[in-house]
Specification:
Blueprint: E1 2-4, E2 13-16, E3 24-31, E4 38-51, E5 62-68, E6 83-84, E7 90-91, E8 110-123, E9 128-135, E10 144-156, H1 160-178
Antiparallel strand pairs: 1-2, 2-10, 3-9, 4-8, 4-10, 5-6, 5-7, 5-9
Length: 179
């Protein structure tokens, strides 16, 4: 685990660089304390690349993303039952012959992420969703990949009245087409 950033700067990103035979992972437990059920969450964050990688296969270093609601705080970093979701995989820069430091604050070394995770059943008030990124040690020197400016927004289940209004609007539009 790394606190990535420019030397002397208080602006930091949470980074990871796998080494050896361990599978590295970091994540977060998000508790729904909104008072309402959520049908999805929206994630927004930046991937920052702070070190290039070398690889004999030429394949970029990848931190795989998974999420779940049926895990526990104590086990979610190793839970094989989480749902893999490549939408939020962090893929490092193309491997180079000799790796070295990169400035993760430069736009050329960043990837912006924005998207939703939709739950099969609504996330009840008080229930948690677990997010995890895992990184295996690839052959060669791995990239140092970090997450910065992480933001999560809960999206409530639409109220029945809202659905009824949407249905009326759709019916009116269909009726207007027939005339």
């Amino acid at each position: 685990m790394y606190s990535d950033g420019a030397v002397g700067s208080a602006e930091r990103a949470l980074g990871m660089l796998a080494s050896g035979s361990r599978i590295m992972a970091f994540g977060v437990e998000i508790v729904n304390n909104t008072g309402v059920a959520l049908d999805s969450i929206t994630l927004r964050f930046h991937q920052e690349n702070w070190r290039s990688s070398t690889s004999s296969s030429g394949t970029p270093n990848t931190m795989t993303f998974a999420w779940g609601v049926n895990s526990t705080s104590a086990t979610y970093l190793t839970d094989a039952g989480l749902t893999n979701d490549a939408t939020f995989n962090l893929v490092g820069p193309t491997p180079v012959a000799t790796n070295g430091a990169l400035d993760g604050n430069l736009a050329a070394n960043q990837v912006n992420f924005f998207g939703n995770i939709t739950f099969a059943t609504p996330l009840a008030n008080g229930q948690s969703v677990f997010l995890r990124w895992s990184d295996v040690d690839d052959q060669g020197s791995d990239a140092n990949i970090a997450i910065d400016d992480f933001n999560v927004v809960g999206n409530p289940v639409p109220e029945p009245a809202t659905l009824a209004v949407l249905g009326l609007v759709a019916a009116a539009a269909a009726r207007r087409k027939r005339k």
